[in-house]
Structures are given as structure tokens and as C-alpha cells.
């Protein structure tokens, strides 16, 4: 499968000004990547509507192709059609193969356990920031499940060889939920029966809800979730796909990729700072962790109206100013960057909890936020697990920030720039392609002036 190429210059300059009009949030890479994995392991044919085009989405499609799936695009609807054998049945499962994950943390942590279902050797590779993110979970866990693994002191590249055999196991969920997501899918694919994954100290819990939902949507066997402490795969047969369409002799699972609350959070913050705007495509019933941005926004006193179809958002009414807020982002760490941009425009000190969750993202996000926002004249203190942002003062314009090769830092700087005293340049602006390649185009659609 080839995807459309989106060109973004090295430097994008954001000119301050209002946002107006209507925009549809992009596809969620969390939803799309899970759909790709579920389409692979559920076998048969699947139709993925509203597919994402981010680098991480593209990497996941490349991975399922490398693992034996065929992916084509339906020209009329843009849907992706995936056909796959179950991995254990795949003719090439004994062969030695190499899979590339680009920079996707979810991709590598989810698909490594799935690739471990193969009995051939799989070489697992990544690039950029992924090379320094911790993967020692696999060194500790996979050997207990009949999988041989060689890593580079807990970092990439990895070589693995299964087949993974589901067993009762205890894992540590404090670093990331993504490893659990992978094991849940791999256990389901291996038809785990009367087996439990025990988890200690699980963080980013709503992401596991999303995993379980996608598994149910694809008709995979869904374990019983006991308070996020254990996940029990019982004796019952596989689940039944909730959305299936029957075409003569074959059954196709149809899955609609959700709109992205993580990328959408930047649009919402833009609306609260310099709107009003209308945003479509964000489902208030979603299990996505970053839907929690609504709570922080409501606490600022911005104008906010949420329905199942659209969200209308604008600054505080009349002469009122946005108020500082207190928010716990431990289970939704990707909200730190948009909430920092929001906090800049809120009177007083905003406190965000969960700083320890930021150390191993595309950058060490607590530090990069502190350093890049300092260039805009914003003071951010880090005290243990708390981030404290002093808001309400004018943001410096005519400055140059750097994405630090982190998509969410670039988007946070861009949104913060909307109310600055002059244009704000962002170096290595193309980092946004990791999750939201159309981000700058969407800002332009909302009336923002950009220059190189
Ligand atoms: O499962 C997912 O889709 C994700 C889980 C979160 O990671 P952690 O579980 O490591 O917090 C989040 O930060 C990441 O961007 C996407
Ligand atoms: C950390 C992120 O993604 P991942 O862990 O999947 O690379 C992110 O999107 O902010």
C-alpha cells in the first residue's frame, strides 16, 4: 500500500490571529493502529473506514503486510481492505523476516508480541526516537512465553522467535500500557483459554479500554477485565464481531476509525484561546483517554458545547478571562502539550499531575515543554510529579522554537503562537507527520496565516 505524501517545510512560521470556521478532527492513530493489528490477527477480510495517514499508521500497515496481510484501498470510499490468514496459518510463518516500525511506540510494543506468534525469526527495527525508548519489557516477558529474544540492552533492534504460548503471567504496567495492549491481542490470536495476564500498577488505563473495544469490534476473544489488575481469557469460544456485513459466503468486519481526541485536543485549545470554532468527528462516547481534555477545558471557563456530532468552543464569554486549572494527566499523558498551551492563556498557576509519565515519549516531554515554552516567555516549574505553568502573561512573538522532533511539541508551540505578540517559528515542523500530517493545513483552514 502506498500513501499520499504530505510536504511540510523545515520551518513553519505561525502568525498570531483568531481561528474561525469548522474543521473535522483527523483519524486517531490509536484506533487505526489497533484496527490494523486486529484485522491481521482476526484473519479473513476487514474493511477499515476513515483510515489514518500518519507516519505511525503507515508503519502499522507496512507491518501487517510484512506479516502476511494484503492491504488495498477502495478508491470510491477511501476505505482500506485487509485480508489475512491467522498468523499461525500463514504460509510464510517459518521464514525469517524483518519488520520496520518507524518511530511508533504503540506499533512496536503492540506488534512485537503479535509477531512472536510466528515460529520463524522476526527482526524488529525502528528509527529516530524509537531507538532510545525502553523495550526491556520484552527481554523480561517473552522468554516466559516460549519466545527467544535478543535485544541491545533493552533497546532496538530486537530479534524474536516464537511461537508465543499464552500462560499465566504477571507484568508491570507502570511504564506503558502499550505492552499490555500487545499481549492482549497476541493472547486472543493464540486463542488463550483459562489464562490470566496479571498487571501491577497499570497506567494509561483508558488505552486498554480502547484495545478491548477494538478486539470486540473485530470479533476477537475478549478477556474479563478485573479492575485493570488481571485480564482473564476464559473457556468461552471467540467473541462475535459486533459490526459484520455478510457478502454471500464470506464475512467482512467493518470498522470505522475514530476521530482523534489527542490531535483534536490541539484544535480545541486553539478554539478556547482564539476561537470560536466548530470541531466535528470527536465522539464524546469514545473510550480514548484524551477525551478527558473536555474536563480541563470546562474548568477554564471557556465557552464549550458538546454534542454527539460537533463541539463548539470559544474563549470565555464577555470580558472574562480563562482560569487556571488543576488536572491529573497520569492516565492521559499525551494531553500535557496541548494543556500547557492552554495554561499559558489561563490566569494564575495551572497544575498538571503525571510528569513521570513523560520521560519516555518522543522526547522527554516535561523538559522539552519547559525549554521550548521558555522561549515564548512562559515559566514552567517541575516539582516531583507536578508541572506548574504560570499563565496569563503575554507570550513573546518573533521567536524561534524547535519541535525537538516531537509532534506534540510542534503542535503545542503552534497553538500557543496564536495569541503571541508576533509570529512564532517552529523548526523541524514536519514532526507532526507522526500523528497529524494535515495539522498545519487544518490551521490554515481555520484562518491562520502560515509562512516559511
Ligand atoms: O496505546 C496507545 O495508543 C497509546 C498509549 C499511550 O502510551 P503509554 O501507555 O505508554 O502511556 C500514549 O501516550 C500513546 O501516545 C498512545
Ligand atoms: C507517545 C506517543 O506515541 P507512541 O508511544 O505510540 O510512539 C504519542 O503519540 O504522543
TrEMBL record:
Residue spans crossing the bilayer: none
SUPFAM superfamilies referenced in this protein's UniProt entry, alphabetically: EPT/RTPC-like
GO biological process, one term: amino acid biosynthetic process
Catalytic residues as annotated in Swiss-Prot or TrEMBL: 334 (proton acceptor)
Pfam families the UniProt entry points to: EPSP_synthase
Residues engaged in binding 3-phosphoshikimate: 29-30, 34, 176-178, 204, 334, 361
Family per record: Belongs to the EPSP synthase family.
Name of this chain's protein: 3-phosphoshikimate 1-carboxyvinyltransferase
Amino acid at each position: 500500500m502506498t500513501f499520499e505524501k504530505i510536504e511540510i517545510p523545515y520551518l513553519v512560521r505561525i502568525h498570531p490571529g483568531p481561528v474561525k470556521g469548522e474543521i473535522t478532527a483527523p483519524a486517531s492513530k490509536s484506533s487505526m493502529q489497533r484496527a490494523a493489528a486486529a484485522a491481521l490477527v482476526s484473519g479473513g477480510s476487514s474493511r477499515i473506514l476513515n483510515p489514518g495517514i500518519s507516519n505511525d499508521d503507515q508503519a502499522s500497515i507496512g507491518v501487517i503486510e510484512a506479516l502476511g496481510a494484503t492491504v488495498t484501498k477502495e478508491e470510491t470510499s477511501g476505505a482500506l481492505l485487509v485480508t489475512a490468514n491467522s498468523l499461525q496459518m500463514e504460509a510464510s510463518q517459518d521464514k525469517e523476516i524483518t519488520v520496520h516500525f518507524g518511530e511508533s511506540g504503540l506499533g512496536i510494543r503492540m506488534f512485537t508480541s503479535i509477531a512472536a506468534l510466528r515460529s520463524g525469526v522476526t527482526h524488529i527495527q525502528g528509527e529516530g526516537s524509537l531507538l532510545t525508548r525502553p523495550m526491556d519489557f520484552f527481554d523480561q516477558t517473552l522468554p516466559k512465553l516460549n519466545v527467544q529474544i535478543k535485544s541491545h540492552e533493552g533497546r532496538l533492534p530486537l530479534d524474536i522467535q516464537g511461537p508465543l504460548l499464552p500462560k499465566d503471567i504477571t507484568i508491570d504496567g507502570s511504564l506503558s500500557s502499550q505492552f499490555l495492549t500487545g499481549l492482549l491481542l497476541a493472547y486472543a490470536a493464540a486463542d488463550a483459554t483459562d489464562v490470566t495476564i496479571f498487571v501491577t500498577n497499570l497506567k494509561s488505563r483508558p488505552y486498554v479500554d480502547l484495545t478491548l473495544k477494538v478486539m470486540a469490534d473485530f470479533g476477537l476473544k475478549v478477556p474479563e477485565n478485573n479492575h485493570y489488575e488481571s485480564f482473564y481469557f476464559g473457556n468461552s469460544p471467540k467473541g462475535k464481531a459486533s459490526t459484520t456485513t455478510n457478502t454471500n459466503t464470506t464475512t467482512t468486519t467493518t470498522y470505522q476509525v475514530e476521530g482523534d481526541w489527542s490531535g483534536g485536543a490541539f484544535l480545541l485549545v486553539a478554539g478556547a484561546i482564539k476561537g470560536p470554532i466548530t470541531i466535528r468527528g470527536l465522539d464524546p462516547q469514545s473510550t480514548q483517554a484524551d477525551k478527558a481534555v473536555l474536563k480541563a477545558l470546562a474548568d477554564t471557563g471557556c465557552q464549550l458545547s458538546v454534542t454527539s456530532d460537533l463541539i463548539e468552543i470559544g474563549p470565555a464569554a464577555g470580558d472574562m478571562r480563562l482560569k487556571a486549572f488543576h488536572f491529573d494527566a497520569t492516565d492521559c499523558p499525551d494531553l500535557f502539550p496541548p494543556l500547557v498551551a492552554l495554561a499559558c492563556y489561563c490566569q494564575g498557576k495551572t497544575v498538571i499531575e503525571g510528569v513521570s509519565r513523560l520521560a519516555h515519549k518522543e522526547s522527554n516531554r516535561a523538559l522539552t515543554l519547559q525549554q521550548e515554552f521558555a522561549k515564548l516567555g512562559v515559566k514552567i516549574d517541575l516539582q516531583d510529579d507536578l508541572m506548574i505553568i504560570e499563565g496569563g502573561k503575554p507570550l513573546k512573538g518573533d521567536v524561534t522554537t524547535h519541535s525537538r522532533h516531537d509532534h506534540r511539541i510542534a503542535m503545542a508551540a503552534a497553538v500557543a503562537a496564536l495569541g503571541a505578540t508576533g509570529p512564532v517559528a517552529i523548526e523541524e515542523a514536519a514532526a507532526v507527520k507522526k500523528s497529524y500530517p494535515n495539522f498545519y493545513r487544518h490551521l490554515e483552514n481555520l484562518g491562520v496565516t502560515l509562512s516559511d
